[in-house]
Amino acid sequence: MTAMQDAAPGQVSYASDRLRPVRIWLYSLAAFVLLIVVVGGITRLTESGLSITSWKPLSGVIPPLNQAEWEAEFEAYKQIPQYSVLNSWMGLDDFKYIFFWEWFHRLLARALGLVFLVPFTIFLFQKRLSRDLAWPLFGLFVLGGFQGALGWWMVSSGLTELTSVSQYRLAAHLTAACFLFIALIYVARSLSPGRVLGRVTGFHLATGALLLLAVVLQIGAGAFVAGLDAGMGYQTWPLMDGAIIPNGLFVMDPAWRNLFENALTVQFIHRGIAYLIVAYVGWLIWKRHKDGGFGGVHGWLPRIGFIVLLQVGLGIATLLASVPIGLAVGHQALAFMLAGLAVAYIADMRRAR
């Protein structure tokens, strides 16, 4: 994701910009988080997430290296409900396939810590980071560690009674990843040198914040769709189960459970939030066009509008095609990119005030 050039030409030279390596590092971290999210999506879609039934922060980096070690891992997997209920047909070669995706996902998550700590330490020694910047950045490292703990908490929910992970814990894990991603983008964008052009009011900041909140909420709703495999049902559009508002939205008791546990309701909510975001962004673009156009910082809005339309089209295609891995992962990744664009817009508006 690249930001538009908003500094006055020649105002800042690379030689005098001591924070440029820090920004590159933060954007690289955000890209790495997005890669982890993509691999996590593949892990989920291939039902690989429960293939490793233990958490070994150090020794788990090394996969099984011989037949005996593979047999031991496979035997551990055989003890959980997912194997006995759904995958008892599996042989060792089938298990190796799902093991790879979970192992790779965990490997990338571990690597994120190193990708953060090594440059962070170097920048501290180079005195590129002030105290006011170093502590918030260290807070992002803690958030990354918390995200790893959430990942194991999520996996553990599927090891004793369920045949997949809890949709509640999946939503918490994905939403935490989103918070980490947008925080990295926001800090990096806030450190950009130069002057941001354009008139910014409290109204612009409030509407931008509301857009970001809606996108994050939609990402969380998408996690519930994934956790319940809700996208595998009601694969028509624009009608759902033959109607705009289908029957059966509140068949569970108490009613609140439908919002999180009824696959029909969960998919309906996900669709509904998408429609609201499209209408809201359309209104923002119309209002900005009416009030002065898209010069300067408000040039983000047409880009956001384009990505919103692309995301909706990709979501519909994913549903109609019965959730193929490529489209589904692209849909998830594009949602994170949309959140990144929204937070970059907010960061630039704050710099313009």
From TrEMBL:
Short name of one Pfam family: COX15-CtaA
E.C. code: 1.17.99.9
Catalytic activity: Fe(II)-heme o + 2 A + H2O = Fe(II)-heme a + 2 AH2
MF-aspect GO terms: heme A synthase activity; metal ion binding
Keyword flag Iron: yes
Residue sites binding heme per the record: 270, 331
Pathway where this protein functions: Porphyrin-containing compound metabolism; heme A biosynthesis; heme A from heme O: step 1/1
Similarity remark: Belongs to the COX15/CtaA family. Type 2 subfamily.
Name listed for the protein in its UniProt record: Heme A synthase
Record keyword Iron present: yes
Organism this protein belongs to: Devosia lucknowensis
Main location class: membrane
Membrane-crossing segments per the record: 24-45, 107-125, 137-155, 167-188, 209-228, 268-286, 306-323, 329-347
Subcellular location as annotated: Cell membrane; Membrane
InterPro entries linked to this entry: COX15/CtaA_fam, HemeA_Synthase_type2
Membrane topology listed for this record: Multi-pass membrane protein
Gene Ontology CC terms, in alphabetical order: plasma membrane
Cofactor: heme b
Subunit and partners: Interacts with CtaB.
One of the protein's GO biological processes: heme A biosynthetic process
Keywords: Cell membrane, Heme biosynthesis, Iron, Membrane, Metal-binding, Oxidoreductase, Transmembrane, Transmembrane helix
Function, as annotated: Catalyzes the conversion of heme O to heme A by two successive hydroxylations of the methyl group at C8. The first hydroxylation forms heme I, the second hydroxylation results in an unstable dihydroxymethyl group, which spontaneously dehydrates, resulting in the formyl group of heme A.
